[in-house]
Amino acid sequence: MSNVVIILQIMLITIGMIILGMILNKLLGLSKEKITQFKERASNLQERIKNAQVIGDIQMMVKLQRETMQFTKQIIIKQFVPLCLRCFIFIGVFAVLGFIYKDYGSGLLPFPILIFGTGWVAWYFIFSIGFSLIIFGFKKLYKRITGKDIPTQNHLREIMQLISPAQPISGISYQVPDTISSIKEEDKFSERTDSWKERIQK
After folding, report:
1. For the chain, what is the domain count?
2. 188 and 138 inside one domain
3. Domain identity same for 18 and 79
4. Quick check: 193 pLDDT over 70?
5. Is the domain of 79 the same as that of 158?
6. Do 199 and 119 lie in a common domain?
7. For residue 65, what are the domain limits?
């Protein structure tokens, strides 16, 4: 086969891989009902954390910290398992492509592309970047025309941001162990101060 035919085949394969990725994202992504449940739970946790910080309830903060850790693990699993499955699928596809196009590992480009060389992998990289930029531009254009976002798979990231303890409330840190230790240190200092005052008065 000529180089032009190989390049056209790689282009079609790239389009197929992009479509396959979209289908996998759709199939392995969370349903709208599950996303809504996660968001409601994250909002509830965030509100309870704020309330516990405001009133300074250390026991409640410890309990909420444990609950948040369990919830975070659940979200990470929801992200990690589909990602691993997609990786295995794409690795398998690339292994097949590598076997089919083993004779075209170089010579299809007059100059190397980064670490991808001059063969079919380099052309796949070029087409993948090109089509990804086209899709990105289409999404931006769609948003500018309609004012609406195309649904993406970033819901779990938004949920993680909801339960992020990055912003302390009323000067009380969410890091519960540090809070407990600081309170203990303040108690010790207060006891030393009181005993010093008693000796002076005597």
Report:
1. 2
2. no
3. yes
4. no
5. yes
6. no
7. 3-171
Residues 122, 104, single domain; the answer is yes
Question: How many residues does this entry show for the chain?
Answer: 202
Q: What is the pTM of this model?
A: 0.61
Torsion of CA 137, 142, 148, 150, to 10 degrees: -60
Q: How does residue 12 score in pLDDT terms, banded at 50, 70 and 90?
A: very high
Q: Is 133 in the same domain as 193? A: no
At 150 the pLDDT is 57
- Give 191: exposed, middle or buried? Use CB within 10 Å, 0-12, 13-18, 19+: exposed
